[in-house]
């Protein structure tokens, strides 16, 4: 019964979304307030209906109702409860429902936000958001219905894919979706502004918190996915330039550019045309990502949803929303008036430079991802564009930007002084050079570029700290004055510093990967293997069974030099329902570094194949991302952008917390 | 989304255990082995897509890894080994696409886009400098007019 209620609610939501996408615009054009405000009501109703529907699916999973086809093919009665829950989005249909849930959640949040939005802007935004909702609800209902029944119902389910039975992966998709889908609001704002023909600082200020919110979640989602790949795939890699990874990186890059360009728009009422375009492109890239993943069009390890009907449907959605908005853009953008002016050497100018470089890096990923597909369609030639290509193009484009980042961040608004900015950063730069030189002295081997990378990262971190110091300490005397200045500094300034320092931390972590070492060996109990700073001794290999898997657990003593660390266990599991093996890497965190043990096959002579990695400073890669996201969240709590309470002097507890 | 996907397929394609390079494949000569690892990192596993043969558990990847090591032991140069594999499987096997007429656009595009963007902001910058007029100080005549206006204002 509850399954049918869920199905019915979903269909009803589609109807409500149609209302949401049409009535507000009609109301605006007729100057009818009552009609225009229908959008808010519809958006909230739509969300409640989709939430009801989602809840129904959750209930069927928790109850292991195998009469529902979706549950039967993706769950099992012996699964722990947590994985029964996460099975809901561990499959195509359920993850689409989650997509729509978040889409409508954002719609409802815009409808309910107490920020004073111009009525026309709110109505237009809700209408555009409604249209996206219609498309994806129709997609879900017509091609990916999670509520289809199975007659007769099987006695047991087929289990969730074992590799998905992991806590990291349980929270990865929701984070990523909030990011992806959050950009739909930015898109809706852009479309509404184009229809309305008015784009100004008010628009920029209204859009910025939504962009930040989506960006924070996307950052965390990507980092989570990367960490998951690192520990689950068993060979210690953390980024593969896989099309599906690129699909999430592109909107992230475009979103990063958007965050920076809206600052200029807000301050100077300039860069309007570009910002609107960027807002459209960011969500378009999210849609493209959805298309890539859902259609399996790109030859990728991910092509699990390679159902042509679904692929075509999403391609249709993609063409309609990207093409439609770009056509609207081409038609209306020339009407936008150029705003305020600023000197080339200024904070605004630096942000423009930032946008050029980030947009280029995004385009690089885009071209690298789609080029093989296009080439094959045009000439029939098959080529591969793999990590070596991206390392040779993406990195050189991004590094110059990071090098000048601290300079840009300390330039004054409107008209800056390059020499002054250079002087302010001289100390940070000097410190970075010293650290890079020290790195060369301390380490052996590794490519020349690695110490430079470390230096760059240190420059970014110290540059961010010094910039804060400049603003707080340099113009105050005595502790009370410093404290009050620190408190008086806008949260967005703190956010900027944190985000930029986070980039620096990630850069350090990535550069340090050059010194990671690997050793492969066959071990019998009592034998040892050394890689870099770490040595392991195999203690025992014992069977151990979980609720829905059998496992073979290898236990190792771990030494760093002569110091003994806590023992590590690595395991191989076989999930019974699908007879599918997985590996659980043994990882011991040693401050910011990790010892990483991957378990291979048992050899005929009884020894176990083992790979041991020494991964120096590797945690900084993800820690940097968390710091970045924290910076974004701090910025979000800035008084100017607060979603709930527009004017309150004390920090609000409602304000967004960094979601870790 | 991407991760879910990865896994679903990874799980089906190869059964997930960390088998990539197996101990019995490793060459006794450490230098040669290191070269072999370098080469295999750039060769695509043809059956599993988007993984290098160095990372893959697929049997074909293992065969290729062994092939690479055989060629190296036989005295081939790194480029020689790569050419040998490309001759068998085509450019598709290279994770770093070769630079030729078909990939010209691919390799050039990032730098063309960057140059275009920089050129654009350079032009914009010049336009702004002239229109903001921030650099030109007021002339004598203008100074006098300002004084006059200020006095008018006060009066």
From TrEMBL, chain A:
DNA repair keyword on record: no
InterPro entries: CcmF_C, Cyt_c_assembly, Cyt_c_biogenesis, Cyt_c_biogenesis_CcmF
Primary site of residence: membrane
Localization, UniProt: Cell inner membrane
Bilayer topology term: Multi-pass membrane protein
Keyword Zinc carried by entry: no
Sequence similarity: Belongs to the CcmF/CycK/Ccl1/NrfE/CcsA family.
Protein name listed in UniProt: Cytochrome c-type biogenesis protein CcmF
Native source species: Bosea lathyri
UniProtKB/TrEMBL annotation, chain B:
Family affiliation: Belongs to the CcmH/CycL/Ccl2/NrfF family.
Organism: Bosea lathyri
Record's protein name: Cytochrome c-type biogenesis protein
Single GO cellular component term: plasma membrane
Gene Ontology BP annotations: cytochrome complex assembly
Classification via InterPro entries: C-type_cytochrome_biogenesis, CcmH/CycL/Ccl2/NrfF_N, CcmH/CycL/NrfF/Ccl2_sf
Keyword Coiled coil among UniProt keywords: no
Gene3D superfamilies reported for this sequence: Cytochrome C biogenesis protein
């Amino acid at each position: 019964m509850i399954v049918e209620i869920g199905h019915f609610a979903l269909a009803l939501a589609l109807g409500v979304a149609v209302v949401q996408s049409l009535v507000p615009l009609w109301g605006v054009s007729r100057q009818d307030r009552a009609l225009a405000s229908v959008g808010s009501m519809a958006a909230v109703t739509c969300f409640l209906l989709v939430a009801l529907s989602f809840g129904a699916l959750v209930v069927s999973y928790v109850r292991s109702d195998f009469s529902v086809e979706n549950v039967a093919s993706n769950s099992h009665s012996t699964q722990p409860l947590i994985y029964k829950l996460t099975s809901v989005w561990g499959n195509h249909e359920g993850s689409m429902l989650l997509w729509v849930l978040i889409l409508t959640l954002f719609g409802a949040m815009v409808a309910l936000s107490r920020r004073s939005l111009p009525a026309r802007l709110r109505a237009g935004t809700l209408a555009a958001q409604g249209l996206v909702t219609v498309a994806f609800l129709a997609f879900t209902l017509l091609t990916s219905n999670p509520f289809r029944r199975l007659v007769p119902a099987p006695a047991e389910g087929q289990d969730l894919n074992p590799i998905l039975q992991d806590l990291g992966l349980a929270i990865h998709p929701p984070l990523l979706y909030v990011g992806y889908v959050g950009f739909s609001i930015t898109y809706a704002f852009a479309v509404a502004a184009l229809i309305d023909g008015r784009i100004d600082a008010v628009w920029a200020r209204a859009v910025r918190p939504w962009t930040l919110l989506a960006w924070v979640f996307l950052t965390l989602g990507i980092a989570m996915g990367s960490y998951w790949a690192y520990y689950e795939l068993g060979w210690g890699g953390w980024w593969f330039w896989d099309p599906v990874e690129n699909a999430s990186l592109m909107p992230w890059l475009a979103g990063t550019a958007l965050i920076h360009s809206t600052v200029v728009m807000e301050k100077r009422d300039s860069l309007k045309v570009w910002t609107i375009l960027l807002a459209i492109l960011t969500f378009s890239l999210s849609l493209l990502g959805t298309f890539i993943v859902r259609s399996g069009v790109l030859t990728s390890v991910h092509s699990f949803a390679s159902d042509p009907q679904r692929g075509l449907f999403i391609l249709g959605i993609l063409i309609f929303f990207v093409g439609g908005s770009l056509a609207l853009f081409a038609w209306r953008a020339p009407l936008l008036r150029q705003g305020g002016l600023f000197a080339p050497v200024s904070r605004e100018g630096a942000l423009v430079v930032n946008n050029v470089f980030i947009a280029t890096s995004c385009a690089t990923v885009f071209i690298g991802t789609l080029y093989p597909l296009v080439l094959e369609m045009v000439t029939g030639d098959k080529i591969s564009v793999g990590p070596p290509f991206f390392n040779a193009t993406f990195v050189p484009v991004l590094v110059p930007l990071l090098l000048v980042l601290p300079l840009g961040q300390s330039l004054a608004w409107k008209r800056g002084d390059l020499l002054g900015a250079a002087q302010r950063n001289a100390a940070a730069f000097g410190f970075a050079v010293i650290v890079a030189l020290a790195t060369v002295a301390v380490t052996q081997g590794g490519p020349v570029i690695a110490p430079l990378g470390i230096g760059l990262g240190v420059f970014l971190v110290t540059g961010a700290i010094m910039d804060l110091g400049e603003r707080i300490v340099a113009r105050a005397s005595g502790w009370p004055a410093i404290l009050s200045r620190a408190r008086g500094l806008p949260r967005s300034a703190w956010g900027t510093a944190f985000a930029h320092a986070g980039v620096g931390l990630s850069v350090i972590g990535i550069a340090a990967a050059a010194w990671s070492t690997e050793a492969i060996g066959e071990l019998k109990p009592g034998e040892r293997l050394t890689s870099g700073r770490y040595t392991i001794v195999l203690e025992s290999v014992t069977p151990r069974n979980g609720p829905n898997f059998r496992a073979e657990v290898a236990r190792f003593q771990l030494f760093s030099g002569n110091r003994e660390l806590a023992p590590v266990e690595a395991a191989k599991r076989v999930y019974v329902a699908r007879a599918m093996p997985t590996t659980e890497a043994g990882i011991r965190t040693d401050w910011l570094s990790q010892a990483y043990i991957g378990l291979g096959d048992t050899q005929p002579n009884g020894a176990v194949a083992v790979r041991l990695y020494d991964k120096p400073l590797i945690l900084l890669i993800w820690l940097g991302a968390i710091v970045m996201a924290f910076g974004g969240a701090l910025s979000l709590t800035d008084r100017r952008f607060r979603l709930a309470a527009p004017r309150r002097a004390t920090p609000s507890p409602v304000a967004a917390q960094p979601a870790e | 989304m991407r991760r879910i996907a990865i896994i679903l397929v990874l799980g089906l394609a190869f059964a997930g255990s960390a088998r990539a390079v197996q101990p019995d494949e490793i060459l006794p000569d450490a230098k040669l082995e290191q070269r072999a690892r370098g080469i295999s990192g750039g060769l695509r596993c043809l059956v599993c897509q988007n993984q290098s043969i160095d990372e893959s558990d697929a049997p074909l990847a293992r065969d290729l890894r062994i092939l690479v090591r055989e060629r190296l032991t036989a005295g081939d140069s790194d480029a020689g080994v790569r050419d040998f594999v490309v001759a068998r499987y085509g450019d598709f096997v290279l994770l770093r696409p070769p630079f030729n007429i078909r990939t010209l656009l691919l390799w050039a595009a990032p730098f063309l886009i960057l140059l275009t963007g920089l050129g654009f902001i350079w032009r914009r910058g010049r336009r702004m400098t002239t229109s903001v007029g921030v650099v030109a100080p007021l002339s004598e005549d203008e100074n006098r007019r300002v004084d006059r206006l200020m006095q008018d204002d006060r009066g």
